[in-house]
Amino acid sequence: MYRRRCHDWHGRPDGLDHKGQKFRQIWLRPKRAMMHRYWTRWFPKAAGEFKAAKFREKRQDLDWTMPKSFELPKISHIHRNTKKKMTRRLLRRYRITPEMDWPSHWPTAKTYNAQVCPLPIRREYQKHPGLVTPRDGFNNTEMLKIPNFLHLTPTAIKRHCEAIKEFFTPFPESIKKQKKAFRDEYFPITMKYSDFVHQSNSIRDCRSRTVTLIMSDVTFNLKDVRERTKFRQLAGNRWNEQTKTLSFVVDRCYTRKQNQDYIDFLITALYSETKKEASWEKLKTRADTLNIDFQGSSTEDRLVNILAGIQKRSAEKEQKPVAFSPVLSEIEKDEKITKEVLRKHPKVKQYSRAWEKYMNKTETPETVRQYAKSIRRLLGIPEIKVPPSTQPQVPVKNSSQQQASSSSV
Amino acid sequence: MRTHLIKPTIFLAVRNYESTSSSFIIKRFITRTSTDDPRRLIPSDIGKMYVVPKATLYGLQLHKIFPQTFKQQLEMFEECVWLCRQPTLEIMNCLKAVNTTIPSIRMVVWGKHGTGKSISFYQGVQYAWHSKFVLLTVRNAMDLARTVKDIQMSVYKEGRIDTPYHAQNLLTLFKHQNQLLWDELSKLTTERTYVWTKLEKTTEGAPLTELVELGLEKTTLATDCLGALCRELRRHSTKGDIKLLLAVDMANSLYGITKINKITGRRAPSDEISVIHFIRKFFTTEWYNGACLLVADKRERSHFADKFTIPLDTPHELFGEKGIADLDPFIPIETKNYTEDEFEQIYEYYKEKHWLANPKALTEEGKIQLKYLSVYNPFEFERLCSFN
């Protein structure tokens, strides 16, 4: 890139010249080879003028604003070749700074032009990558082949929108809030397929037969737990729990139409199978459920054993139970502890909810801490509070100190 | 030229410090806890250091069973001084709640690598020793599953594999650690007769110590003796005669893989190894007046050649479905990196011991660099100080 000479030649404090004008960047550069040929008697007819220019150089009463090297002699009768300019104007690529307005520089969609676009990019096939030094962006035909969106910068788009805003009404707020519901009702299906263009003997591309279909489960009208679980188990990987979408990616048939028909078949099959209830579905065991429930888990049995044991022993020894007191204090002494009794107990319910969260979601240190809190609440053994730090907090960069104090590393 | 006579007051003070646990100290910047007795530590002692006297060290055989780096530090400094941190007091709090009315409390110490799981574990063991618990410590459950010294098929139960080497190690450690309670243990008797072989049998009403001695004497009976001992200990703690602590380091290995092969050539699952089976029996809710102190370590799940998978440190991930089903409900106790206070204490301790060799480590800038490099991780910081 050209080295910019952005400094003011005369270094005035206000940055203005003697005419009160700001310094303007010069986009002209001298053609030094031409000048050399001119000044060194290359062109005989200009020899006379050469002498005159030299004489003028010695003269002191010339205008001092213009640098001397840029002062061009008035040439009247010069050879045709020497009429070539002694200066050249810099390319548009070098005439733009980040402070200038890009949309004016690249206003519309056009093929890539390295003489205009200042980005140092190049697009080519490198047979030996790493061995060739990076070249500049000129003479790069590959960049011409691809679409560039240099006319669609955020500022350009914003300006365009501002200009045509007066012709538009605001976006309905009700749709914004119910975005997913609106989409499910009016645009329930998204179908994706691609066409490919080739510059070769054949125009075919086998990737064009793949069809992707994305939809939600609203249209399936799943009423109860049985239908929902069966739907999820049949759909398998095609159902995304986080985005609540069902997606089919099909390319098993030769043509796109055949693949689309196959997807239609899959959807109808899925729908009809979820609605049907087979007799063997009643043989479902705990291992077949999608979520681990607290009711029926081994933890529940163990909790019953623990609490029943404590109740019995504290009655025998006539001692107050030390642990599990928050639970036991709310159960009567003579009441036999069974699963049914515990399922109604609010503290145990709270614990079971925390337990289900811990068991069903992916385990992270944070979930373990939540679980620890819930178990401590049940047991009645609270966590120890750490006394505040006595050390002066040393200002350490990169927030490693924050890491230590939050202890979430 | 003058010769100065330097009175060795400083050296005498340090030497005297060794012999008495609560002697005066000339450590300027290290704060000590209110007591060295772990039974009386309070929350305001968090972030302060306390000393383990040599009697305790040898009584608990800690000089043999500590983790390698801490053992080296012990040998170097000839004293055991460690920090009282939050997980320490959590463990002690839970152990204080041990009672004849409630079943055993299961605690799982978990945390990132190098945050002090094993050290907190041993601090808990020391507390239990002072509180007159009967200790059954397993130094390394991964050892039980993975080191294969000598195996024999169990006579008592078909299909189980006995490991006499590990059983005898456990029994020797049990014997050493419970020396102060040996007389009391000898007063406790067995419930029934155990017929080991045609010649050997332990009659009903025999002291428990006889089981231990028999196991140590006869290698073929060691595992079965250990099993009988575990059963009897649970029974007596349920009755209220003793308080029992089962302490297992790297406990998630009890539900992990083994390296023991069966006759068929296949790997034996951890269910079929008798020592592991006996330890797992402690996780039931049938016994009272005791606690299980377990550590979840990711060394079980990490493979030395696999540089890409990052095993998690959380208990469910490390113990697995079966492990959690056996342990639930348990108390997870987390160990974290050092806080600012704790870092300062350890730094000053190393400084005091002249352990930091590089003079730049003694400057403020050096300290900040150590903070950056170690990221307040205790293990990393210890290794950095050893090499700087």
TrEMBL record, chain A:
Q: Which GO terms describe its cellular component?
A: mitochondrial small ribosomal subunit
Q: What is this protein called?
A: Ribosomal protein S24/S35 mitochondrial conserved domain-containing protein
State the superkingdom.
Eukaryota
Organism field:
Acrobeloides nanus
Instruction: Return any one Pfam family short name.
Output: MRP-S28
Question: Residue ranges under compositional bias (Low complexity)?
Answer: 399-409
Which GO biological-process labels does this protein carry? Answer: mitochondrial translation
Picking any one GO molecular function of the record gives:
structural constituent of ribosome
Task: Using the record's annotation, list all stretches that form the Small ribosomal subunit protein mS35 mitochondrial conserved domain.
Answer: 190-277
Q: Where is this region: Disordered?
A: 383-409
Automatic annotation (TrEMBL), chain B:
GO terms classed as biological process: apoptotic process
Q: What is the predominant subcellular site recorded for this chain? A: mitochondrion
Keywords of the record: Mitochondrion, Ribonucleoprotein, Ribosomal protein, Transit peptide
Matching InterPro entries, A to Z? Ribosomal_mS29 (IPR019368), Ribosomal_mS29_met (IPR008092)
Location within or outside the cell: Mitochondrion
Q: List, in alphabetical order, the Gene Ontology terms for molecular function in this entry.
A: structural constituent of ribosome
Single GO cellular component annotation?
mitochondrial small ribosomal subunit
To which protein family does this belong? Belongs to the mitochondrion-specific ribosomal protein mS29 family.
**What PANTHER family does this protein map onto?**
MITOCHONDRIAL 28S RIBOSOMAL PROTEIN S29 (PTHR12810), SMALL RIBOSOMAL SUBUNIT PROTEIN MS29 (PTHR12810:SF0)
Q: Can you name this protein?
A: Small ribosomal subunit protein mS29
Organism ancestry: Eukaryota, Metazoa, Ecdysozoa, Nematoda, Chromadorea
